[in-house]
Amino acid sequence: MGKQLIECVPNFSEGRDMSIIRQITDAIETVEGVKLLDVDPGKATNRTVVTFVGEPDAVVEAAYLAIQKAGELIDMSKHSGEHPRQGATDVCPLIPIANISMEETVTYAKKLAQKVGEGLDIPIYLYESAASKPEWRNLATIRSGEYEAIPQKLGKAEWKPDFGPNAFSDRVAKTGVTVIGARDFLIAYNINLNTTSVRRANSVAFDIRENGRVKREGGKVNGKIINDEQGNPVRIPGACKSVKAIGWYIEEYGIAQISMNLTNIKDTSLHVAFEETRKSCNQRGLRVTGSELVGLVPLQVMLDAGKYFLTQQKRSTGVAESELIRIAVKSLGLDELSPFDPQKKIIEYQLKSLSDEPLLQMNLRAFANETASESPAPGGGSISAYVGALGISLGTMVANLSANRRIWDDRWEEFSDWAKEGQQLKDQLLALVDEDTKSFNAIMDAFRLPKGNEEEKANRKQAIQDATKYAIEVPFKVMEVVMETFRVLEGMASGGNPNSVTDAGVGALCARAAIHGAFLNVRINVTDLDDKDFVQTVLSKGNEMINQADDLEQKIMKLVDAKL
């Protein structure tokens, strides 16, 4: 099982004084094992959303220190801002990210809540999956009346906090109350409008949000509210499930926005929320001018948006990940108010260390120089994977060029599918470029193990055998992936853009070279492996792939020659 990771996204009621925010984030960064991912202040809302991630106990400690520092520096009795709020640390959710269940995350949320309530004398309410009452799952319910309602709520049995004091003291007047919980990943998203009217922005928000609006007689704004048999107001649901939304005016930008929380992106994706907002605005004489993300967003959300907008244009979606993100940013207008840096705003990019892919981070010259150096890695295995990636990249290029041919407008989806397959294969091979070097380093590490007593010798021998098998499996995987690229290359040589047929041919030559090169690495490593059954299987399958690759390369070259 891999390392358990929890994300924490505390919201602090300060967005104007960056010295205060820096002191809070400095407290977070004092905890070893925690990585600060994002700090997103808002002047008009007077609120800052901070995102950090780490192992559970480290996250709990960092969150506690942050809440402690916020309680020292922020005076809620003097606070004002557009966003609903009731505490210096207004809300502090924990989110399971890797190798941890929601149930386990709830345990850590309760641990944090108790630690803060008892250690800092701050009233704490638990919400979402950690809620102690069904009605407290909803943050809006707990925050009803905001900070100003705290003196009336505290002291009442029905508003007794889960932890901390149930009385409004001078201390609580300064810190307010904090809501802590565990929830799924939430996207905080604002859509910009070409109006300053909060009333009109709210009308759009009511059209969008799942809770919709209250039903009134005659459908008129000032009509009598229609109640159901139990006396509760009847609601007209909005267009987007699992979306909360309100309209507000942002003086900093001089515009009104629809402020949304997308609580389940499986129910409503980012681009669907954007499109439904755009439709509502069009019906009301308004226009969407752009949008902004508060905090971080999962990579897949951006990729899905990029694919959606390319599909709307009837263009191939089989383009590079970076291009999909660029299309999403431009289509959603995410760079209207400030630059959008994918490396800082996409959670997977923040979590990914550059050291995970040192070769792929190099430019072409640096990669060539590193290969030509006296270091034995990268070697033939990494180069074979890279040559295979270049080969399928050429096939993917032909597919995209074919999809964009005017005379083949009715075939764009067909070529888009080819291009998507090519992109997937290319990405697999690029990952194997660095994987091959890791496998070589694993062998070197095994040989450096101590070999003093009999136990150490046995452990060292087993480590060498395990590392050797790993060093065989990686180039063998390269061969298997490259074999799949021939299907795309043949398809493009036979039915793709005839002006690019030679590119498909060069791709086939690269594919054959990659398979032969990878097999050389397999053959040199099997000589040191004791597992002879494994060796026999690998060599037998490898020789089959070599023969198939030779045949397929010749078949594709005949197709190319026929068109020249």
Characterise the protein shown here.
- With 564 residues, this protein is an alpha+beta fold.
- The chain has 3 domains: 5-182, Formiminotransferase, N-terminal subdomain (Formiminotransferase-cyclodeaminase, Chain B, domain 1, 2-Layer Sandwich); 187-217 and 233-298 and 313-351, Formiminotransferase, C-terminal subdomain (Alpha-Beta Plaits, 2-Layer Sandwich); 354-563, Four Helix Bundle (Hemerythrin (Met), subunit A) (Up-down Bundle), CATH 1.20.120.680.
- The protein has 18 helices and 13 strands.
- Strands 1, 2, 3, 4, 5, 6 and 7 form a 7-stranded mixed beta sheet that branches.
- A hairpin with a 4-residue loop joins strand 3 and strand 4.
- The longest helix is centred in the C-terminal third of the chain and has 42 residues, at 454-495.
- The chain is globular and about 80 Å long.
- The protein starts with a strand and ends with a helix.
- The mean pLDDT is 93.
Distance between the termini: 55 Å
Radius of gyration computed on alpha carbons: 29 Å
Give the percentage of residues in beta strands.
5-15%
CATH homologous superfamily designation of the largest domain: Formiminotetrahydrofolate cyclodeaminase monomer, up-and-down helical bundle
Low-confidence runs (pLDDT<50, min 5 residues)? Answer: none
Structural class: alpha+beta
Number of strands: 13
**Would you state the CATH class of the largest domain?**
Mainly Alpha
Structural domain count: 3
Mean pLDDT: 93
